[in-house]
Design a protein that fits this description.
By secondary structure, the chain is α+β, with helices and mostly antiparallel strands. It contains 27 helices and eleven strands. The protein has helices spanning 2-14, 16-37, 51-62, 88-102, 141-148, 152-156, 179-193, 196-220, 230-258, 263-290, 298-319, 321-329, 349-359, 361-376, 397-409, 429-440, 473-483, 486-493, 502-536, 540-565, 570-573, 585-613, 618-646, 653-685, 694-699, 708-714, 718-724, and strands at 72-78, 107-111, 125-132, 160-164, 384-385, 417-422, 445-448, 452-453, 459-466, 496-500, 581-582. Strands 6, 7, 8, 9 and 10 form a five-stranded antiparallel β-sheet that branches. A four-stranded antiparallel β-sheet has the order 2-3-1-4, sandwiched between helices. The longest helix is centred in the last third of the chain and has 35 residues, at 502-536.
Length: 727
C-alpha cells in the first residue's frame, strides 16, 4: 500500500492544478445539487417492526381519520392568578385559541378542552390537543410560526399559552458557538507547526471535505428520510478526522523537507508513510460507523453511513488534495515564522514521561485503572430514553407547557398512550368494552377516554392517561401491562390490542437500542482485535488495546450520566436540563470512539513495534516510540477534543450529549489509555507484548502500515530507513 500511496502523493503534487480543479468541481456540483434537490430532515426515530409502529400502520390502513401518524401539539392555556378558564372571559380566550388552531395550516383535528373535559380541577388550565395531517418534521417553519401565533390574542388579555409536542420541535442546527472548537483547533495547529501557512492547510482541506460531505447528505435527503441529527454527527466527525489526518501528513512532509528532500519527493514520502496509517485509521472509523447498519435500526444506520461517507471523503482529500495544496505551498510550509519556545536539547517531555512511567509502571497503571473505575461508577445507574418536553430547556415553550400540564393534570397527561383495539373478525363490540374495563383497572392509569371507532367498526382507539410522566419506569411498566391484556382479550372475545403513541414509540425505540448495544459492542471489540492483530502482528497488543477501549467507553458513560442525568457541572457546561440519557448515544459513542481510539493506537504503537523489530530492548523501544509519537498524538487529541467540545454549546440536548461524550471519550482514551496505560503495560510485558504464534504469523497477511515496502522500493538503508517508517 505504501508504494502506491507514494506514487499517488507525487502525482497529486505534480498535477496540483488538475487535482484542485477536480475537487472544486465536485464541491460545486454537490453543493448545487444540495441547494436544488435537498429535502426535509426528520426528527422521527421510529423503528419498523415494533408494536407501536405496527399499530400506527394499522390505523393508517383502517382508521386514517384518527391521524395517529401525524404530528401532535399540546396547547396549555392558563388563566391569570385569581381567575379561571371556566369564567366567561376565560372561555372566550380558550375558544379564541381553539378557533385559530382549527384554521392553522395542515391541522387535521383539534380537541376542544371543554368538550373533552380537559380542564384542570382548579379551573386554571385548559388543555387542547392538536393533530396534524403530516408528520411533525414535515411541518415548515411557517407552519410552526402559525401554530405559535394562535395564542397571541389570549396572551394580550393576560393568559399564558404554551405549546408542546413534536409539532413544535424544529430541526437542530449548528451555530457560531460550535465554531469555537475549530478556532481552538487552529491555535493548536499554530503552536504545533509554528506557521500560519502550515496550520491553515489542515483547516482548509478539512473544511472542503466537510463541505462535500454535508452537501452530499443534504442532496441525499431529497430522496431519503434522514434523521435531523445526521448532518450534525457527520460535521463533528468530518471536522475532527479531516484536521487530524491532514496534521499527520503535513507533519511528515515538514520532516521530509527538513531532511533536505525536494518538495515533490517529500510529499510522496509523506503520503506513502503517514498516509498509510491515515488509510488504516480511517478504515477503522469507517467500519465502526458503517457497522451501525447491522443493529437493525434504520435511522441509526443512516446516521452511521452518512458519517462514514464523510470520513471516506476526509481520507481521499488527505491523500490527493492535501499533497496538491502542498504543491502550491512548496517549501514554505517548513518555515516557522511564529516563534514557539521549544526545548532543543535534552530529552523531550514525551521521553521524560515515558521513562517515568517505565520506572513506576505498577503504581502508574494501578492509579490509572482506579481513576477509570471511579469515573465509571455513575454508569451503573444509566437510564436510557428519548427526548421529550420534560428535557427541553426551562425557558422554552415546550418545557413551560410540560410544567403547566403536569401541575394541572399530572405528568401523565404529557404522554398519553393510544391503545388500538382490533375488535376481531366479527367486529365484536365486547372486545372494546372489555379492553376499556381491563385497562381502567391497572394501577398507574389516571383516566381512559371514550373510544373512537372507525366507520367499518373493526378498529377503535382508546386514549389512556398514565399517572406517571412519559420518561418514568412506571409508564414503561404500564405499557407492558396494557400489552399483556391482548392475549386474554383475544381468548375471550377474539379481539386484540396494541399500544402506540409518542410515549410508547419512545419506549419501544429505547428498548430496541438497549438490546442492540451489547451485540454491537461485541462486534466492534472483535473487529478491533482482528484489525490490530494484522497491524501489530501480536496477540497481546490487540488484547490490551481493546480492553483499553472498553475502559475509556465505560468511563465516558459514567461522565455522561453524572452530567446529563445527575446534573453535575451543568451550569459550567451550559446544559439546560437533565434526564434520561439519549437511547442512541451509547451505540453512537461505541462506534465513533472505537475508530478514534484505534487512530491513536496505530500512530503511537507502530513506532514502538518498528524499534522492537530493529532490535531495540523492550524498554528503549517503548520510550523511543513514545518520544516520536507523543507530540503528534497530543496535538491530534487536543484538536478532536476542541472540535467535539464546541458542540456542547449547541441547543439540542442530543447534540450536547454527543459532543460532550466524544470530547471526554477522546480525552480519556488519548491521555489515560494511550499515553499512560499503554506505555505502562508495554514496559511491564517487555518482549511478551509482541508474542504471536508462528502458525498465525505465517497465515496473517502483511498490511504494511509502517511503509516497509516503500523503504525497499526506494532502496533506503540505515538511519534513513528508520526515518521512513515513522508516522
Amino acid at each position: 500500500m505504501a508504494p502506491f500511496l507514494y506514487r499517488l502523493g507525487r502525482l497529486s503534487f505534480r498535477r496540483r492544478v488538475l487535482v484542485a480543479a477536480v475537487w472544486a468541481l465536485v464541491l460545486a456540483a454537490v453543493g448545487a445539487g444540495a441547494l436544488t434537490l435537498s429535502g426535509k430532515l426528520s426528527d422521527s426515530v421510529t423503528i419498523p417492526g415494533t408494536e407501536s409502529q405496527q399499530a400506527i400502520d394499522r390505523l393508517a390502513e383502517h382508521f386514517p381519520q384518527a391521524a395517529a401518524g401525524g404530528g401532535t401539539a399540546r396547547v396549555a392555556i392558563a388563566a391569570p392568578e385569581g381567575h379561571k378558564v371556566t369564567d366567561p372571559a376565560g372561555q372566550a380566550a380558550v375558544e379564541s385559541v381553539v378557533g385559530k388552531l382549527k384554521s392553522a395550516p395542515k391541522v387535521a383535528a383539534v380537541v376542544d378542552p371543554f368538550q373533552a373535559k380537559s380542564v384542570s380541577p382548579d379551573g386554571r388550565v385548559a388543555l387542547a390537543q392538536v393533530s396534524y395531517q403530516v408528520k411533525g418534521f414535515e411541518l415548515s417553519d411557517s407552519d410552526r410560526s402559525a401554530l405559535l401565533a394562535t395564542g397571541d390574542h389570549a396572551k394580550q388579555l393576560g393568559y399564558q399559552v404554551e405549546y408542546g409536542g413534536d409539532a413544535v420541535q424544529g430541526i437542530p442546527a449548528t451555530g457560531a458557538t460550535e465554531g469555537l472548537g475549530v478556532a481552538v483547533a487552529a491555535v493548536v495547529l499554530i503552536i504545533t507547526f509554528g506557521s500560519l501557512l502550515a496550520a491553515g492547510i489542515p483547516l482548509l482541506t478539512a473544511l472542503i471535505g466537510v463541505g462535500v460531505g454535508m452537501a452530499g447528505i443534504m442532496l441525499a435527503s431529497g430522496s431519503l428520510e434522514l434523521n435531523s441529527n445526521t448532518p450534525v454527527l457527520a460535521l463533528m466527525i468530518g471536522l475532527a478526522v479531516g484536521i487530524d489526518y491532514a496534521l499527520f501528513i503535513v507533519s511528515r512532509y515538514r520532516h521530509e523537507l527538513a531532511e533536505g528532500r525536494e518538495p515533490e519527493e517529500a510529499a510522496g514520502r509523506a503520503v506513502g508513510t503517514a498516509g498509510s496509517a491515515v488509510v488504516f485509521a480511517g478504515l477503522t472509523v469507517i467500519i465502526a460507523l458503517a457497522g451501525l447498519t447491522v443493529v437493525g435500526i434504520p435511522f441509526l444506520g443512516q446516521m452511521g453511513v452518512a458519517a462514514a461517507a464523510t470520513v471516506v471523503i476526509a481520507v481521499l482529500i488527505a491523500l490527493t488534495l492535501l499533497p496538491a495544496v502542498l504543491g502550491f505551498a512548496g517549501a514554505r510550509v517548513a518555515s516557522s515564522k511564529i516563534r514557539v519556545r521549544r526545548r532543543t536539547e535534552g530529552p523531550t517531555h514525551g521521553e521524560r514521561w515515558a521513562r517515568f512511567v517505565a520506572r513506576h509502571r505498577v503504581p502508574v497503571l494501578l492509579t490509572a485503572l482506579v481513576g477509570l473505575a471511579v469515573v465509571a461508577v455513575p454508569a451503573l445507574s444509566m437510564q436510557l430514553g428519548l427526548p421529550n418536553d420534560s428535557t427541553a430547556a426551562p425557558d422554552t415553550t415546550q418545557r413551560k407547557a410540560y410544567d403547566l400540564v403536569s401541575k394541572g393534570f399530572g405528568e401523565g397527561a404529557n404522554g398519553p398512550l393510544l391503545v388500538v383495539v382490533d375488535t376481531g373478525p366479527n367486529h365484536n363490540p365486547a372486545a372494546l368494552k372489555q379492553a376499556a374495563a381491563d385497562i381502567g383497572k391497572l394501577p398507574d392509569v389516571a383516566a381512559v377516554t371514550p373510544p373512537r371507532v372507525n366507520p367499518a367498526g373493526d378498529t377503535a382507539v382508546l386514549t389512556v392517561i398514565p399517572k406517571s410522566g412519559p420518561s418514568s419506569t412506571q409508564t414503561e411498566d404500564l405499557v407492558s401491562a396494557i400489552r399483556a391484556q391482548s392475549a386474554p382479550l383475544q381468548e375471550n372475545t377474539g379481539g386484540s390490542l396494541a399500544v402506540t403513541g409518542q410515549t410508547a414509540a419512545n419506549i419501544d425505540v429505547s428498548q430496541k437500542l438497549s438490546d442492540a448495544m451489547l451485540p454491537y459492542l461485541a462486534l466492534i471489540v472483535g473487529l478491533a482485535f482482528l484489525l490490530l492483530m494484522l497491524v501489530f502482528r501480536s496477540v497481546v497488543v490487540p488484547l490490551k488495546a481493546t480492553l483499553g477501549f472498553l475502559g475509556s467507553v465505560v468511563a465516558t458513560f459514567g461522565a455522561v450520566v453524572a452530567v446529563f442525568q445527575w446534573g453535575w457541572l451543568t451550569d459550567l457546561l451550559g446544559v439546560a436540563s437533565t434526564g434520561p440519557i439519549m437511547s442512541m448515544l451509547p451505540i453512537l459513542l461505541i462506534g465513533v470512539l472505537f475508530g478514534l481510539a484505534m487512530d491513536y493506537q496505530v500512530f503511537l504503537v507502530t513506532r514502538m513495534r518498528e524499534e522492537h523489530v530493529h532490535g531495540a530492548e523492550p524498554q528503549e523501544a517503548m520510550v523511543t516510540g513514545f518520544r516520536h509519537g507523543a507530540r503528534v498524538v497530543v496535538a491530534a487529541a487536543l484538536i478532536m477534543i476542541s472540535v467535539f467540545a464546541g458542540f456542547v454549546l449547541a441547543e439540542s440536548a442530543l447534540i450536547q450529549s454527543i459532543g460532550f461524550a466524544l470530547a471526554f471519550g477522546v480525552l480519556v482514551d488519548a491521555f489515560v489509555i494511550r499515553m499512560t496505560i499503554v506505555p505502562a503495560v508495554m514496559s511491564l510485558l517487555g518482549r511478551g507484548a509482541w508474542w504471536l504464534p508462528k502458525w498465525l504469523d505465517r497465515i496473517l497477511p502483511n498490511v504494511d502500515v509502517e511503509g516497509e515496502g516503500l523503504v525497499r522500493e526506494l532502496g533506503t538503508r540505515g538511519d534513513d530507513e528508520r526515518e521512513l517508517t515513522r508516522v
